[in-house]
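Quick one, tokens below. Sequence please?
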């Protein structure tokens, strides 16, 4: 069949013949040649340049056959870029009118007509990919802004009108290819000979609203599991039973592409601030206090509107966790609005993970809040009869604060080393020594393993923690030895050193005794 088709296309005007074959393949129930067969023939010959975009694009664009995408890619590579842009603009106008008049629903009700056309959203995606050939069109007397102005605003309007009809997959692909289109146009504009800053700025004035509008219209298609990923990063010891949404990597890639394109064409903070809520895709931010203050009203508005909760909770988790790690406090102007809206979300949202995540965010807010304000908020939450769930949960919030280790944690991986004075004044070593002594006695005497202390999983946990503690305590002893000679009162340096290191030596001996006992089992 490919050989016969190749001979058929070798007549005087192959463009007309090829257009007729494409029309038959799309509309006839039993066409002589399928789109797949035509595609194979064009790939294996030099006849792809005879595709006629002006006449065949309107035939191929609404066709649901998967081979159409490959045919359009072949058309973009081999045919006149100017003709493709003209044909794409004509079809975009048709789709825009159909979207405004909502003709798609009427077409779906017509069961006796030709095969059902592809959804307008899928056709728009194909046009976004086709418009990338604009970079092949020579500038001549027009600037880049003048060349993209006929179709970018109309494409933006069409996506905004039909945004609710995009599926998760088609919306993700549209965001991704729109970002790539913006990148190519910017690169094409900047590489123009003799281009001026005014020309580049005029082009950006068209592209920046386009990117923002596409993301805003298709935000419901984004499922990047931001809050779940941020939760795992901030609370690694808490087992998260919720699985990440399927395809979150692709969704994150699409939005990252949009953010990258916008950062090239404008200001990233402007994208975040001009939208209804921040759009974050990587759980590794480094927010300044200024940016946090700018974005906080948007986050609060999003939570109040029950929209973009994934992005908002991720933003709060990461920033508040960073604030807590750095030992900073939040201003009351920040704490009060958050503690006003978060309890309601943690109490009444139907999704269990959202409730749990919001509860943890509220706990972080209280942790970094000033102490008097924290106690007042806890008292208000415990006495608020309108939210009985929060009255129970506030007990957990109090525990999060009351069960913290107020003495210095000798085994913490702190960037600021403990001084000899801090070690000497701490009571942690004596408490840990007592715990180790109790563990040693129980493990030695519980021969029948009635307490389960000799179970494999318990032994593995103890082995892991004791090895970390042993290494940490050894480093503290060495550090204390070095610090002993640098105390301000050098006359008492040896005395301070001996009294400060004794608890650590005792702790290290307790760990070694447990190791020896375990080896003898």
């Amino acid at each position: 069949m490919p050989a016969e088709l190749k001979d058929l296309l070798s007549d005087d005007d192959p463009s007309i013949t090829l257009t007729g074959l494409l029309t038959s393949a799309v509309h006839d129930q039993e066409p002589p040649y399928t789109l797949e067969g035509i595609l194979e023939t064009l790939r294996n010959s030099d006849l792809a340049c005879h595709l006629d975009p002006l006449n065949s694009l309107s035939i191929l664009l609404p066709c649901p056959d998967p081979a159409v995408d490959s045919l359009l890619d072949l058309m973009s590579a081999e045919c006149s870029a100017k003709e493709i842009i003209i044909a794409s603009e004509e079809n975009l106008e048709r789709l825009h009118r159909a979207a405004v008049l909502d003709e798609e629903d009427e077409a779906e009700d017509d069961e006796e007509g030709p095969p059902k056309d592809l959804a307008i959203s899928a056709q728009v995606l194909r046009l976004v990919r086709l418009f990338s050939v604009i970079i092949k069109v020579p500038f001549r007397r027009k600037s880049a802004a003048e060349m993209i102005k006929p179709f970018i605003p109309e494409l933006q309007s069409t996506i905004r009108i039909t945004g609710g009809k995009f599926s998760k997959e088609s919306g993700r692909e549209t965001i991704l290819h729109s970002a790539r289109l913006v990148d190519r146009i910017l690169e094409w504009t900047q590489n123009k000979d003799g281009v001026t800053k005014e020309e580049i700025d005029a082009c950006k004035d068209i592209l920046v609203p386009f990117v923002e509008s596409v993301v805003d219209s298709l935000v419901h298609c984004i499922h990047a599991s931001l809050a779940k990923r941020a939760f795992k990063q901030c609370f690694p010891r808490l087992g998260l039973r919720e699985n990440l949404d399927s395809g979150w990597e692709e969704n994150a890639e699409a939005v990252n592409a949009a953010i990258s394109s916008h950062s090239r064409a404008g200001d990233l903070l402007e994208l975040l601030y001009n939208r209804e809520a921040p759009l974050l895709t990587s759980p590794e931010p480094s927010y300044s206090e200024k940016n946090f203050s700018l974005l906080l009203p948007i986050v609060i508005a999003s939570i109040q509107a029950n929209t973009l909760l994934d992005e908002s909770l991720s933003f709060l988790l990461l920033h508040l966790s960073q604030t807590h790690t750095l030992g900073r406090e939040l201003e009351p102007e920040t704490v009060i609005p958050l503690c006003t809206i978060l309890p309601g979300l943690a109490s009444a949202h139907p999704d269990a993970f959202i409730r749990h995540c919001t509860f943890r965010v509220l706990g972080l807010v209280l942790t970094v809040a000033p102490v008097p304000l924290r106690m007042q908020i806890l008292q208000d939450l415990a006495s608020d009869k309108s939210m009985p769930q929060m009255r129970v949960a506030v007990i957990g919030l109090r525990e999060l604060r009351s069960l913290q280790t107020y003495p210095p944690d000798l085994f913490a991986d702190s960037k600021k080393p403990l001084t000899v004075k801090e070690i000497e004044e701490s009571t942690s070593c004596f408490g840990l020594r007592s715990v180790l002594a109790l563990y040693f006695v129980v493990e030695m005497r519980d021969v029948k393993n009635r307490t389960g202390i000799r179970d494999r999983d318990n032994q593995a946990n103890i082995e892991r923690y004791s090895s970390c503690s042993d290494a940490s305590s050894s480093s503290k002893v060495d550090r204390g030895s070095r610090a002993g000679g640098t105390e301000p009162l050098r006359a008492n340096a040896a005395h301070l050193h001996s009294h400060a290191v004794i608890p650590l030596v005792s702790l290290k001996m307790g760990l070694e005794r447990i190791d020896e006992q375990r080896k003898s089992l």
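The chain has 25 helices and no strands. The mean pLDDT is 76.
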